[in-house]
């Protein structure tokens, strides 16, 4: 008995549109199949059951037409971004997952086994199943305008399930395949067209302007024998060694906590000697197991947050209230301020001016920005014309009067409330009446900062995360008197900066720093109780967090962690401890890590009590503390919903996709109900039982 495919009630069907195209030099026409869901590039092509059926029918009709070759391409800017993951929640039985996997394999395999030459003209983004269908074609061209290519499934708790794990390593070698299937997804990277051509994923690279015409001509040359496609033979001697090394790296980073990564490794190992049929059958079984598991559903929840909720932040005032920003002022010229200057200049393309206490500091900040621009030119990431323009946009001064015509001024100075209040008092006499005043404070009250100003309504929190160019989160904090115009402008600027902005109430340390500090407080409570640093540092390994606690503290900076901790200890002394050991580490000025190991001098420095905890106890105490703090934050209205906390932790703290966010993990583990008496999310969400 054949199991019915899952129903995708909301599937936006990607149609496979067939037309016969006359190509110069060929007696027969080419059969060109264009994938198109009828929407613009903002709604990419994807494959659900109906989309696969449409492609299946198009291949049949193309084959019956007896063309010189069959070619597959996409709508403008988009080839195909893979499976329609919006239908995953409707897969309720493992047999349905198997059926979907087998359908994709059967349809795609027709392109691989075709006696008529098949080509993929990758004109735009090709991800997941989109790249996999192209790998089934005999030949591939790629456009310079293709935004991204890759197999990102591992990052969302799945594996390339439609042939990618078997075809790619046998096309470009297992080392390149491991990069595309494992390393890139776990570091949120994709292939660019030139890189795809260099690795051998594509056979030819053509300019976007005449991509289709050039691809048709090239394909005709291949068919006639005028063009010979040469592919280096895949070296299998190092296959096992490459995968052994890859597994070591995964174990060191993830500690076995990501099932999809381990499954992908197994499939890459199988691809060395297994037949294509056996390999793809194993893919189907692995995919079905993962689809029905908690991790994939949690990952899809996280993916939905990043792709949808992050682009439609909750609580944003009408965008028509936003004021135009034609010049940006930055108070400070240190590292954070310099990073901000570069970001604002690149994204807003308006003059950016920095100020500091003396010319030496100002010059150092401006030189940093220009040095980073030069590095981008050197790496080919920016042309000289753009670089010259950006250099001209960034300037510095010791005189704050340069802010007189700035529309948006942000301060990035030391975390001292009196200092920040003094700065705003000075600036309010200089800037125009409608200029927005933003603070990059990580923990101080925006309301208190603006309390003595004549116009506190235009002060808004604008909290970036370090490194500014890498981390996408921007916490936008509404003070008690911040008005809608200031808030709308802040969100408009955040969007132009290409950041994912979340509206946050003016509460101590906001979201990410409050939770990380509560977490750190529990870590140091265990250390103060006598738990060895090595036990504390590895206690969270089963979660597969991106960094261990001590390395995270090193990245944040012990002095910064101590300052934020003191702020929260004053606000909530019953929950945020004041660790003597953390203070000793800061006073000693010792690095926490040396050669990726805990500094022995730090180990010798800390003093603990006589009640050490086990690793399991450390982990559970930390999770219990997070559950309690999140419930309190939601009750206080720090953010609109639990989803916003999850989004902040994913984008600002690197909380892993495979856990789905903090709140669904706490729900699934039972921690939420045990600690707070209730769940954070409804049943059936993010891998929670329905």
UniProtKB/TrEMBL annotation:
3-hydroxyacyl-CoA dehydrogenase C-terminal domain segment(s): 510-589
The keyword Chaperone appears for this protein: no
Catalytic reactions of this protein: a (3S)-3-hydroxyacyl-CoA + NAD(+) = a 3-oxoacyl-CoA + NADH + H(+)
Domain 3-hydroxyacyl-CoA dehydrogenase NAD binding: from-to ranges: 327-506
Transmembrane segments: none
Gene3D superfamilies named in the record: 1.10.1040.50, 2-enoyl-CoA Hydratase, Chain A, domain 1 (3.90.226.10), NAD(P)-binding Rossmann-like Domain (3.40.50.720)
GO molecular function, one term: enoyl-CoA hydratase activity
InterPro entries attached to this UniProt entry: 3-OHacyl-CoA_DH_NAD-bd, 3HC_DH_C, 6-PGluconate_DH-like_C_sf, ClpP/crotonase-like_dom_sf, Enoyl-CoA_hydra/iso, FA_oxidation_alpha_subunit, NAD(P)-bd_dom_sf
Keywords: Fatty acid metabolism, Lipid degradation, Lipid metabolism, Lyase, Multifunctional enzyme, NAD, Oxidoreductase
Pathway, per record: Lipid metabolism; butanoate metabolism; Lipid metabolism; fatty acid beta-oxidation
SUPFAM superfamilies in alphabetical order: 6-phosphogluconate dehydrogenase C-terminal domain-like, ClpP/crotonase, NAD(P)-binding Rossmann-fold domains
Single GO biological process annotation from the record: fatty acid beta-oxidation
Residue stretches in coiled coil: none
Pfam families, per database record: 3HCDH, 3HCDH_N, ECH_1
This protein's record includes keyword Lyase: yes
PANTHER family tied to this protein: TRIFUNCTIONAL ENZYME SUBUNIT ALPHA (PTHR43612), TRIFUNCTIONAL ENZYME SUBUNIT ALPHA, MITOCHONDRIAL (PTHR43612:SF3)
Family classification: In the central section; belongs to the 3-hydroxyacyl-CoA dehydrogenase family.
Protein name according to UniProt: 3-hydroxyacyl-CoA dehydrogenase
Species: Actinoplanes nipponensis
């Amino acid at each position: 008995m054949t199991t019915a495919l899952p129903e995708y009630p909301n599937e936006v069907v990607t149609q496979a549109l067939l037309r016969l195209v006359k190509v110069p030099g060929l007696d027969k026409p080419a059969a060109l199949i264009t994938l198109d869901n009828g929407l613009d590039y903002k709604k990419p092509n994807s494959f659900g059951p109906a989309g696969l059926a449409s492609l299946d029918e198009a291949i049949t009709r193309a084959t019956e037409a007896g063309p010189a070759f069959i070619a597959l391409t996409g709508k403008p800017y988009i080839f195909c971004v893979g499976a329609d993951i919006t239908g995953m929640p409707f897969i309720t039985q493992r047999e349905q997952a198997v059926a979907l996997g087998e359908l994709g394999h059967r349809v795609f395999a027709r392109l691989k086994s075709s006696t008529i030459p098949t080509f993929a003209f990758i004109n735009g983004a090709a991800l997941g199943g989109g790249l996999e269908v192209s790998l089934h074609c005999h030949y591939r061209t790629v456009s310079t305008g293709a935004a991204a290519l890759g197999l990102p499934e591992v990052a969302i708790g799945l594996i390339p399930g439609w042939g990618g794990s078997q075809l790619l390593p046998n096309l470009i070698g297992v080392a390149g395949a491991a990069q595309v299937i494992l390393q890139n997804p776990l570091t949120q990277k994709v292939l660019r067209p030139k890189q795809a051509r260099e690795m051998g994923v594509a056979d030819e690279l053509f300019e976007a302007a005449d991509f289709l015409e050039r691809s048709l001509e090239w394909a005709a040359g291949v068919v006639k024998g005028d063009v010979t496609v040469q592919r280096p033979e895949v070296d299998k001697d190092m296959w096992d060694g490459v995968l052994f090394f890859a597994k070591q790296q995964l174990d060191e980073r993830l500690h076995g906590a990501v099932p999809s990564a381990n499954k992908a490794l197994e499939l890459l190992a199988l691809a060395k000697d297994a037949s294509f049929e056996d390999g793809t059958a194993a893919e189907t079984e692995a995919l079905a197991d993962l689809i029905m598991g908690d991790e994939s559903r949690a990952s899809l929840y996280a993916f939905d947050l990043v792709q949808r909720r992050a682009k439609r932040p909750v609580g944003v005032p009408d965008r028509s209230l936003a004021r135009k920003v034609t010049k940006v002022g930055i108070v400070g010229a240190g590292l954070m301020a310099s990073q901000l200057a570069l970001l604002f200049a690149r994204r807003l393309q308006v003059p950016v001016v920095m100020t500091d206490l003396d010319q030496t500091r100002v010059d150092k900040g401006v030189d940093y920005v220009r040095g980073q621009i030069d590095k981008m030119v050197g790496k080919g990431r920016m042309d000289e014309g753009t670089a010259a323009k950006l250099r001209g946009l960034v300037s510095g001064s010791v005189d704050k009067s340069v802010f007189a015509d700035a529309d948006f001024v942000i301060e990035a100075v030391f975390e001292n409330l009196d200092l920040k209040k003094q700065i705003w008092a000075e600036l309010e006499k200089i800037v125009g009446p409608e200029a927005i005043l933003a603070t990059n404070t990580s923990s101080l009250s925006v309301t208190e900062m603006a309390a003595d100003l004549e116009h506190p309504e235009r002060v808004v929190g604008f909290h970036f995360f370090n490194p500014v160019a890498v981390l996408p989160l921007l916490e936008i904090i509404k003070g008690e008197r911040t008005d809608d115009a200031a808030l709308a402008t802040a969100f408009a600027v955040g969007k132009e900066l290409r950041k994912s902005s979340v509206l946050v109430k003016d509460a101590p340390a906001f979201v990410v720093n409050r939770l990380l500090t509560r977490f750190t407080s529990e870590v140091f409570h265990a250390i103060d109780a006598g738990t060895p640093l090595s036990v504390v540092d590895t206690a969270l390994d089963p979660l597969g967090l991106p960094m261990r606690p001590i390395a995270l503290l090193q990245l944040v900076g012990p002095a910064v962690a101590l300052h934020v901790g003191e702020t929260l200890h004053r606000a909530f002394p019953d929950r945020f401890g004041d660790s003597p050991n953390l203070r000793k580490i800061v006073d000693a000025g010792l690095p926490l890590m040396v050669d990726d190991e805990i500094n022995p001098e730090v180990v010798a420095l800390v003093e603990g009590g006589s009640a050490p905890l086990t690793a399991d106890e450390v982990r559970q105490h930390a999770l219990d503390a997070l559950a309690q703090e999140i419930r309190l934050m939601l009750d206080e209205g720090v953010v609109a919903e639990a989803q916003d906390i999850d989004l902040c932790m994913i984008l600002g703290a690197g909380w892993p996709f495979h856990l789905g966010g903090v709140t669904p993990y706490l729900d699934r583990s039972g921690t939420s109900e045990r600690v707070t008496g209730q769940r954070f999310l409804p049943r059936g969400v993010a891998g929670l039982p329905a």
